[in-house]
Specification:
It contains 10 helices and 6 strands; from the N terminus they run αβαβαβααβαββαααα. With 284 residues, it is an alpha/beta fold. The protein starts with 10 loop residues before the first helix and ends with a helix.
Length: 284
């Protein structure tokens, strides 16, 4: 078994961790992501986001006023060269209950997606199906995913520019099949802070060599655009995310969200009506 000797985090990393725990705790409270007795499946990929999510949830669990259970779950997609021992060894070293699902989605994706095309969509659907099956079979009440604030904003612009939709990622939602509640505890946390925290904690990161390394993804272009905006106007991403929490449907144009057809002006009063009102008000 591999030994993980990260040592004591620096004071800077501890302060950052405290701030991130506060943000995760606020997101959980704002959206009631976790309730007493929940059995939360923490989806662990081996990337910085899921390691950080697991670490912060474990910290919050120790001080939470309500009891809930955490179980880390990783999907081994049988990617060539995937270091199968890293996650189990890390999870054992921190005393975290876990389960590894083995499913050869890699071969399916490579067979169905032409060379040079992005693989994320199919890979995501296959991965989601495997995780949902495990959740159904193991009395899971919450499925925690590691999407952060920047993922949510990037998804908004991907749908805006390429899908013609105002659609992002909800911090909490019911799955399309109606059987699972999905939560995103990192919804208030920036990717930059997650990267800093993961480095400081020396998590044993595992890069995605199936789709995460593809450089022709539309998301890469969106990420670069947002990074440029943030560099030129610090705080812009936070402002965009705040807007996602302050939606005013009547100012948009979606007829499903606002009854534009039923919107009428005040009835026009005849001259007789006006005189009757004046008589009532002024006694004349």
């Amino acid at each position: 078994m591999r030994q993980f000797t990260t040592g004591e985090p620096s004071a800077t990393v501890r302060r950052l961790g405290a701030r991130l725990r506060g943000l995760v705790g606020k997101a959980i409270a704002d959206y009631r992501m976790i309730e007493a007795g929940d059995r939360v499946m923490v989806c662990l990929s081996g990337g910085k986001d899921s390691y950080t999510m697991l670490d912060l949830l474990r910290s919050l669990q120790r001080s939470a006023p309500i009891p809930f259970e955490l179980i880390a779950v990783n999907l081994d997609q049988k990617q060539p060269g995937f270091p199968q021992d890293v996650l189990p060894d890390y999870l054992r070293s921190v005393g975290m209950p876990f389960h590894i699902i083995e499913q050869d989605t890699y071969r399916v994706v490579k067979r169905l997606i032409p060379e040079g095309k992005t693989m994320c969509s199919l890979c995501s659907r296959l991965r989601r199906g495997a995780l949902y099956r495990f959740a159904s079979e193991n009395a899971i009440t919450r499925i925690a995913l590691g999407h952060h604030r920047d993922d949510i904003i990037e998804t908004l612009f991907l749908n805006l520019f390429h899908g013609g939709r105002l659609k992002a990622m909800a911090p909490k939602l019911r799955s399309q099949n109606g059987r699972h509640v999905v939560i995103r505890p990192l919804a208030y946390v920036s990717e930059r802070d997650i990267a800093r925290y993961a480095r400081g904690m020396r998590f044993p990161l595992i890069p995605c060599t199936l789709c995460g390394s593809q450089q022709n993804l539309q998301r890469v272009a969106i990420k670069a655009m947002l990074a440029a905006w943030e560099a030129e106007h610090p705080g812009r991403l936070e402002s965009i995310f705040t807007a996602l929490r302050n939606v005013q449907p009547a100012t948009l144009a979606d007829q499903r969200l606002f009854d534009f057809a039923g919107l009428r002006g005040l009835p026009v009063m005849s001259e007789l009506d006006e005189k009757a009102i004046e008589a009532e008000l002024f006694g004349s």
